[in-house]
Amino acid sequence: MRVSKRASSAVALGAAFALVASGCSSSDGDGGDAGASSDGAITIDGTQPEVGLVPSNTTETGGGAIIDWIWTGLVEYPNDGSAPRNAVAESIETTDSKVYTIKIKKDTKFHDGTVVKAKNFVDAWNWGAYSPNGAQNGSFFGDIQGFADVHTEDPDGADGPQKAPEPKAKEMSGLKVVDDFTFEVTLAAPTAVFPTKLGYSTFMPLPDAFFTQGAEAFGKKPIGNGPIKFVSWEDDVQIKLTRFDDYSLNDKMKIKDVNIKLYQDDTAAYNDLLAGNLDFQQQVPVSAIAGDKWKTDLADRAIASTTPSTGIIAFPIYDKRFQNPKLRRAISMSINRQEISDKIFFGSRKPADSWANPLTPGAKAGNCTACQFNVEEAKKLYAESGGFSGELVMYYNADASHKEWMEAVAQQVKTNLGINARAEGVPTFAVFRQNINAGKMTGMYRAGWQQDYPDVENWVGPLYVTGGSSNDGKYSNPQVDALAKEAASAPSLEASHAKYAEAVALIDQDVPSIPVYFGGQQSGHSEKIKKLELSNVGELDLTSVEL
């Protein structure tokens, strides 16, 4: 879902990483006058975060982008999609891919002036993993020895969710502070991909103030350690950020202030962009893509990029009506993805044909057989499933351009299978996500995945392993879980990717969700911005902006 840009020395991970097409823009020959940027300010578009800004509790892009901007992790993911590189980490060393010694730089600070120390990582990870704290990203710490002792899942029985048992411990046995700037991580089994994960926001450090204030208060006034710091938050209106002048790493801010305007409608944001009232919009509305209108409107301020993200429609498998895999496969195969790409997205998105975005290291193209458009097979499977009674509602958040394609999908399902299907909008992304997290979805719903770190594991573990942080539909297959566990402990990335391919083959038979399109992004900026870069997932790299 979320990745951020930082820069420093390289981490040797022994693998080649796919390059991701990333946008950059310069409105003049010299790339702008950095000196003129130093006290400048910009306004960019955003969405209301679902919850408070706590790294291990944020699973959506509205809050995730802000966390990416105000925190710096142990490693960073370069804008060009190349291999992760050290950021706060001075070194990450291992001889067996099981025990990692991590040394951090001694001159980094939190925004409250306190020094970032090894214990700030250890304490943050223990807090995120301890299940009574309710961190949505808790499962990302599952590689670490002792995770099972601090994290218990709610046992879902015939009477619905039950209270989870109290964990045996409050801290994972696999984390040990060696000295102020060194800590040791022992994993439950060798995990070659572990260093790759460490730039994801879940693994960010937390200052001592977090533990004295509590998560709720901290989340409304977060204290990070990145190049830009939090100023204020007015719900559904704006979030203000400003440069952190004591930031000591290479990627310092060239401008001073950033105002994130929280829109409920992407067309309104686009109109502000055209009027010069908005300086950056990450994704222009679909209506502006028709006939390349956005390119005409913005000229050299239009940026096209390709990102490792996929548009998905998910099933609430906790609803008995959606528990037959033949029904789910029939619905998926009744969707003409090429038609949606051509007629709704005007060719700016590609039809999805695999479970992991093919830009991701370890991903296999074409492995989603359920993504094939085959009305005859879909009707056969639908009949074998026993059909679907009543109205099939497909929900989407109405504050972005999802209405057209969701309505198109609903109409295709209605036409090709005879199901009484329709699409319905939920006013805001925050409310939409709250309903999903509460397990209250009464129909299929729009989803999407933007990779957190560059490895196919990120497209399996969080989404399709039992208890995964973003397994919102509550899909569960013990064989998938077992293969994912084998993949995680494989001796090499190559062996790991082979096991994940086996797991994906089972996922393809179960069809727990429906991949629809691969992400293409159309961004725009104002004349004020002379130079910028996008991260490898299409977010604005605020440290690159020059005015």
Automatic annotation (TrEMBL):
Pfam families, per database record: SBP_bac_5
A GO biological process held by the record: peptide transport
PROSITE patterns assigned: PROKAR_LIPOPROTEIN
Record flagged with keyword Thylakoid: no
Gene3D superfamilies: Dipeptide-binding Protein, Domain 1, Dipeptide-binding Protein, Domain 3, Periplasmic binding protein-like II
Coiled coil: none
Record keywords, A-Z: Signal
GO MF term set: peptide transmembrane transporter activity
Domain of life: Bacteria
Keyword Signal: yes
GO cellular component, one term: periplasmic space
Entries under CDD domains matching the protein: PBP2_NikA_DppA_OppA_like (cd00995)
Sequence segments annotated as region (Disordered): 28-49, 151-171
Signal peptide: 1-23
Identification of the protein by name: Oligopeptide transport system substrate-binding protein
Protein species of origin: Micromonospora echinofusca
